[in-house]
Every structure is written in C-alpha cells, then in structure tokens.
Amino acid sequence: MRVTVxxxxxxxxxxxxxxxxxxxxxxxxxxxxxxxxxxxxSAERVTAAHGLRVEPDGSLPEPGAPDAPELLVVPxxxxxxxxxxxAWAEAERGAVPDAVAAHHAAGATVAGVCTGGMxxxxxxxxxxxxxxxxxxxxxxxxATDAEVREERVVDDGDVLTAGGITSGIDLALHVAEREAGAxxxxxxxANMEYARR
Length: 197
Hints:
Blueprint lengths: L2 E5 L5 H16 L6 E5 L6 E2 L5 E2 L3 E2 L11 E4 L12 H7 L1 H11 L3 E5 L2 H7 L7 E2 L6 H5 L4 E2 L4 E3 L3 E4 L4 H14 L1 H11 L5
Parallel strand pairs: 1-2, 1-6, 2-5, 6-7, 7-11, 8-9
Antiparallel strand pairs: 3-4, 10-11
Helix pairs in contact: 1-6, 2-4, 3-4, 6-7
C-alpha cells in the first residue's frame, strides 16, 4: 500500500513523524506500507508548527496516477489557535481539502490525524460518518455533518480519523494491524516502547 503523508507549513510535527515512523518500521518488519512525505505544491522545505524543517520527498501525485497514494495521511496543527499557517489556514485556502477529496474520489483511503480531521470535514468526507479530532476542535467537528465520536481512532473503512496529537501513532499502528496483522503492529509498538491506546 503506497502511503503518503501530506506536509504543509504549520503542520504539527508529531502528526507527521509519528505515523511515518510506524509505517517505515512496519515495512522493515515485512508489511507493505512504505511511506513518503509530500507537499501539495513543489517545495524544497516545509516548516512545521514548532519550527522543525522537513524536506519532502516530492509533491503529491495527481489522483489516479500510477504513483498516487493508496493511503493519504493528513496531519493537523494550528487549527485551535487559528494560526496563519497550519490546518486552519489550509482549510480557509481550500487547496488541501480539494486535493484530499479528489484523491478519495479516485479510490484512496484518507486518514486525518488530530485536526487533520477538520481538513477531511472541509473536504466533505466526514458527512454522515463517524469521526473524531483533537479535543479542542470537537465543537467545530460537531458543527459539521459528522457523527462525532470521542475515541482515539475511528475507522470507517476508507476514511479514518484520530483524535489528539499522539493519536497519529495509534492510527498508524491500527493501519499496520489492519494491513499486516497484529504481530507486525505489536512488534512495532514494542520496539517503540509505546503503549497502544
């Protein structure tokens, strides 16, 4: 399964790095979950919410392209404070929600980490679906047509959401278990010394 983690200025570091590490570690243990970091537009570097600078692997392929993601992971960051960079700014700009919707329409599974779920909501992908987000954005999620669940990870098949910042690790471990079995996910969690929730 081709996994792409979307990066944009102001994303929360752990929303990206946590899932990326899980997917790569699962791949090292035989799972087919190689991950890459991509930006919507070509960029040499992206600056995260707390100043971490990341060099993405490239830009997001067009939906339906041979190298398009089969799983597109969308991080959050900057939603609750309405920062000028981050999920809120990307939702207002509209390009990320549009791209996420297009990839989903082309057959990709999409996953929102933390307030990345709000970008999925802006894309219209949570309408009538169970979903979660960071606790500070639950009221915003309730204002959409999503069925709000105060859970760590919500799996609705081709749309997944995870609440809170560290929940991206749980989401990725859930995907690893779903795709490669509990043995792989448990081995990755044990190596990371991470207690799954």
